[in-house]
Amino acid sequence: MEIINLSETNSVLNQYLKEIRCKEIQQDSMRFRKNLERIGEIMAYEISKRFDYSPDEIETPLGKTTISNMTNQLVISTILRAGLPFHQGFLNYFDKAENAFVSAYRKYKDALKFEIFIEYIASPDLNNKTLLIVDPMLATGGSLELSYRALLTKGKPSQVHIASIISSAYAIDYVVKNMSDTNITLWTAAIDPELDEHSYIVPGLGDAGDLAYGSRM
Asked: DSSP secondary structure string, 103-136?
């Protein structure tokens, strides 16, 4: 598995990463969602450099020209609910892509121990397609792995790209160990060193779902 950490190269991505982390700025939920979307657009552009292209001749008002055109059949998948604005950023750029959605949640046994369950999946056929799994926070890697296994029941993709805004070092190790059975590239905008006792990323940004859509009961 290839790991690509986009924070190793400075770009405008840093601005939006700063804003989603800053506890004052992130209180504006509309701005928080928009920043997740912007980061999705930037990461979509970076990932597109790995796709397949073929020449396509077009006619302009003044003549003909040839432009390389993407040939991958894309499916963009996200894990509800925090992934929705991030997903939209990818869809803004890959507007012809199909879409898949997975509902994964933590069921707590007590304040610290939990199990992860898949409750819902909606996906097109994935055989021989390029699957993008976009999830803004990669904390333990457990929900990502379960979602990935659930998606594989819909077919075998030819390529898999995982996009996460903030990943923990623990999750990176977990994914490399448990999801190395196919052609996967993991893209992230930051790798944070720790998880707290509740398995939240530190320094992270808090609960992305709550910041985007309000707190849950």
From this structure: EEEEEESSSS-EEEEEEEEE----TTSEEEEE-S
Q: Which of 211, 203, 205, 206 is nearest to 27 (CA)?
A: 211
pLDDT on residue 109 = 55
For helices 142-151 and 169-178, what crossing angle results, to 10°? 30
Q: What residues have CB less than 8 Å from 162, skipping those under 6 apart?
A: 132, 133, 134, 135, 138, 144, 175, 184, 185, 186, 187
- At residue 175, what is the residue type? V
CB 148 within 8 A of CB 78: no
Q: Measured in Å, how far apart are the chain's first and last C-alpha atoms?
A: 38
The predicted structure's pLDDT at residue 92: 98
Q: Which residues contact 66 (CB under 8 A, 6 or more apart)?
A: 55, 56, 57, 58
Residue 29 and residue 215 in contact, taking contact as beta carbons nearer than 8 Å: no
- DSSP for residue 37: H
How is residue 186 written in tokens? 């993991």
pLDDT digits (tens, 9 = 90+) for 86-110: 999 999 999 999 999 998 766 655 5
CA angle, corner 74, sides to 17 and 2, nearest 5?
55
Where do we find the tokens 């060193």?
193
**172 contact partners, CB below 8 Å, separation of at least 6:** 3, 138, 141, 186, 188, 191
Strand 201-202 relative to strand 194-195: parallel, antiparallel, unpaired? Answer: antiparallel
